[in-house]
């Protein structure tokens, strides 16, 4: 499957490093094919090199799963089968890797990529927590997971705001 240009996706948001000002970060947003970057160059010229630095393989960015290179269907469906067979039971990423033939490593990136695709592209109700992953069986489980994600987002935003305040105080 040929990978699409990052510009073809409906929403992409990522933080990239500045080349000219070490330690500075710029926010790149591409929404419905329209790019934006927080850097001065984009502000004045309407384009910049940061748009080319968005990493479609960074599963922690808000890049849609479509931009992540897909794993073979057989492999991701082994994960789906395991989660469905043990529905309602938490399974760690290490255990998923061992039982489905994925390489076992420290962070199980390939397992997480495959699960991202199963959720975001294939629309399977897989949720995660401190104890691993599980196939959600009820709408209440999905809603509880959404609420937990929203709380994490709020906490992260609070921390970012605090760190920006500290950074601004240091620069004075």
Could you say which structural class the secondary elements and strand pairing correspond to?
alpha+beta
Give the quaternary arrangement of the chains: single chain
CATH C-level category of the largest domain: Mainly Alpha
DSSP strand content: 15-25%
H and E string: EEEHHHHEEH
The CATH topology assignment of the largest domain is Arc Repressor Mutant, subunit A
Give the tally of β-strands. Answer: 5
| Major sheet strand order | 1-2-3
Protein described:
The protein has 172 residues and is an alpha+beta fold. The protein has two domains: 59 residues, no CATH class; 65 residues, Winged helix-like DNA-binding domain superfamily/Winged helix DNA-binding domain (Arc Repressor Mutant, subunit A, Orthogonal Bundle), CATH 1.10.10.10. A three-stranded antiparallel beta sheet has the order 1-2-3. Strands 4-5 form a two-stranded antiparallel ribbon. A hairpin with a 2-residue loop joins strand 4 and strand 5. Helix 2 packs across helix 3 and helix 2 crosses helix 4. The chain starts with 10 loop residues before the first strand and ends with a helix. The N terminus is likely disordered.
């Amino acid at each position: 499957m040929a990978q699409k240009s990052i510009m073809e996706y409906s929403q992409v948001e990522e933080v990239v490093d500045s080349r000219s000002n070490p330690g500075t970060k710029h926010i790149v947003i591409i929404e419905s094919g329209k790019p934006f970057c927080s850097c001065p160059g984009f502000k004045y010229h309407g384009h910049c090199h940061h748009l080319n630095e968005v990493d479609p393989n960074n599963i922690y960015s808000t890049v849609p799963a479509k931009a992540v290179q897909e794993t073979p269907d057989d492999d991701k469906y082994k994960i789906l089968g395991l989660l469905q067979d043990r529905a309602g039971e938490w399974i760690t990423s290490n255990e998923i890797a061992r039982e489905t033939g994925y390489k076992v490593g420290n962070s199980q990136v390939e397992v997480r990529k495959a699960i991202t695709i199963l959720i975001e592209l294939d629309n399977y109700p897989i949720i995660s927590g401190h104890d691993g992953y599980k196939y959600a069986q009820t709408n209440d489980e999905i809603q509880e997971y959404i609420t937990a994600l929203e709380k994490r987002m709020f906490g992260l935003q609070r921390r970012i705001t605090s760190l920006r305040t500290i950074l601004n105080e240091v620069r004075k």
